[in-house]
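I have been asked to look over a protein record a colleague put together. Alongside the sequence sits a line of tokens, each denoting a local backbone shape. Please read both lines and tell me whether the tokens look consistent with the sequence. I do not need a full report, just your reasoning and any doubts. I have pasted the whole thing underneath without changing anything.
>
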Amino acid sequence: MVTLLPTRPGRLADVPSFTRTIGGAESNVACALAAAGHRAKWVSRVGRDGFGDHLVETIAAYGVDVSAVGRDAARPTGVYFRTATDRATAAHEVVYYRAGSAASAMSPATVPYAAVADGRVLHLSGITAALSGECLALTRDLTAPRAGRPLVSFDVNFRAGLWRDGRDGRDGSGPRVLLDLARGADLVFVGEDEAEEAWGVVGPEAVRGVLPEPEVLVVKRGGRGAVVFERRAGTGTGTGEGASAEDTVTAAPHADTVTFAAAPRVDVVAPVGAGDAFAAGFLSGTLRGLPVRDRIRHGHLMAAAALTVPGDLGAPAAPAHADRLVALDDEGWGRLHLAPGWTRTGEDQEVRTP
């Protein structure tokens, strides 16, 4: 969608002007991956209008392949407005204008499987599944078992408001639908808070309990860090929690390797887009075949790039700089304090405590 950001804090009713940018879970991930040097393709549909032109041109400017983006002459490009406040506060407002949009009409008929079959990873979001029955049918089709499919990555992205009008299909509630979709993926991202809201489970181990199927499960814990469960042979004990920075153990009953990596301290400008950026960083590490701890740290650094800018997308650190930070020992990583501009300076920022 086209995103319109207020030029000053305040209620939407009081803000006199807005700055145009772009936003969207999957396109955010594609842009961040391309900016990090990977080949990325965005598959979607936009209106045959000026906003659609802006989206396609802007995303292409990041180096993303937009050849599979359809143009719909009968439906408009989606637009949304939001306030400058943290969306976790009561003062935050967001207004979507995407009912009947081109993207909401995506379906297995308008997005053929061949358009997504040529990548190593296919990244999907629960937000798209919530937009319409057609979008849900498409997401189900893409997460269904299929010989030779790419690694399917699924970000749960539970938004309760999107599921209130009955667009969750005949199989049950939105949370149930998202759980079924996640179970069909190979790699799943979910926030600890959204898992509690959607499925009533508390803690990473409980999340793994309701999602035993994915080969890799990433449970994001906000500013505390992230826990990754990766399927491994054998059994053992341990949870991966309680470590001061990082730890890797083998855990029963799923025969997982469980890795926790703390997040660095970040001076947050705006929290929007951080989850998508984390997914992009983790996927980047996955594509490079990095160890799980390093994948998580790359996710944290990419999230920090988004957190320290006003919009959804932040320019990531140069690969050599990011790799150097990821390679820090626990003590050095624990001292990191990333402020706006950290990706441009190339300098580590530290906070020394007495």
About this structure: Confidence is low (pLDDT under 50) at residues 234-245, 248-252, 348-354. DSSP finds twelve helices and 15 strands in the chain. The two ends are 46 Å apart (CA to CA). Residues 18 and 274 are 21 Å apart (CA to CA).
